[in-house]
Amino acid sequence: MGEVYEVFDREYEAPVALKVLRLSKTGDDIQRFKNEFRYLQSVRHPNLVRLLELMEHEGTWFFTMELVDGVNFLDWVRPSATPSHESFSNADTVLVAPPNVDTVRLDSVVDIELTTPKVHGGGLDEWRLREALRQLSEGLFYLHSAERIHRDVKPTNIMVNQQGRVILLDFGLATYGGAAHTGELFGTPVYMAPEVAQQGVVGPESDWYSLGVML
Predict the structure, then answer these.
(1) Does residue 183 come out as left (phi exceeding 0), alpha (psi in the -120 to 50 range) or beta?
(2) What are the pLDDT digits (tens) for 14-24?
(3) What is the dihedral of CA 174, 180, 183, 186, to 10 degrees?
């Protein structure tokens, strides 16, 4: 949905991340962008990215958030592994619907012919994995207790800073409620829970399913 830049915030007197809406800027795009900010604005937890300010300037929408200097989840738990292909980026969070050539719709079920990113060369740090999982679980439990669902849990949306703090990012697909029927099919196919693919009711278990796939 957006492009992220490192900028210096004069009010906070510190570097922050600035995310700019870069899609078609329809009413739905802008609303989804605002929701990304609002869904997390009142939620504070060390394992959830902290959002700062939402602004608009001459028709351009953007918001600022804490700047995370670190690596994604997989790079953290496999520091010496070599990816077999490029890692997914935020650009891989896509609307999955016909006529996407990678998508076949059969009886309202979406079958995605994509492979899970694989690594080779070993390098798994089990202690890092256990500690990162503990922190990520605490962040998700807190998010769900605040009646919010992330809906796009994947390695590139989870950063680990240089001090080892795990931070869940990118709430562009988040929804309110302990369970919700969104009526929209958004997400990253590889990590998508079945009920999300079928455009059914999504709840906290949808996030835990994605975490299980990621692990």
Answers:
(1) left
(2) 999 998 877 66
(3) 30
pLDDT category, 122, cuts 50, 70, 90? low
Q: Retrieve residue 75's tokens.
A: 């790079």
Residue 96: alpha-carbon gap to chain centroid: 16
Residue 176 has pLDDT above 50, yes or no: yes
* Amino acid in the structure at residue 78: R
Question: Mean pLDDT, the chain, as a whole number?
Answer: 75
Query: Cα dist. 162→29, 71, 131, 166 in Å?
Result: 33, 8, 14, 10
Neighbours of 74 (CB within 10 A): 19
Residue 8 and residue 30 in contact, taking contact as beta carbons nearer than 8 Å: no
Return the H-helix or E-strand segment holding 1. Answer: none
What is the band of 210 on the pLDDT scale with cuts at 50, 70, 90?
very high
Looking at mean pLDDT, say which of 68-72, 106-110, 122-126 comes out highest.
68-72
Cα three-residue angle 88-160-82, rounded to 5 degrees: 50
Distance (Å, whole) CA 104 – CA 116: 18
Q: How large is the average pLDDT for residues 60-73?
A: 89
83 cis-preceded (ω within 30 degrees of 0): no
Could you give the 3-state DSSP secondary structure of residue 56? strand
Report the greatest alpha carbon distance in the chain.
Answer: 54
CA distance linking residue 88 with residue 116, whole number of Å: 10
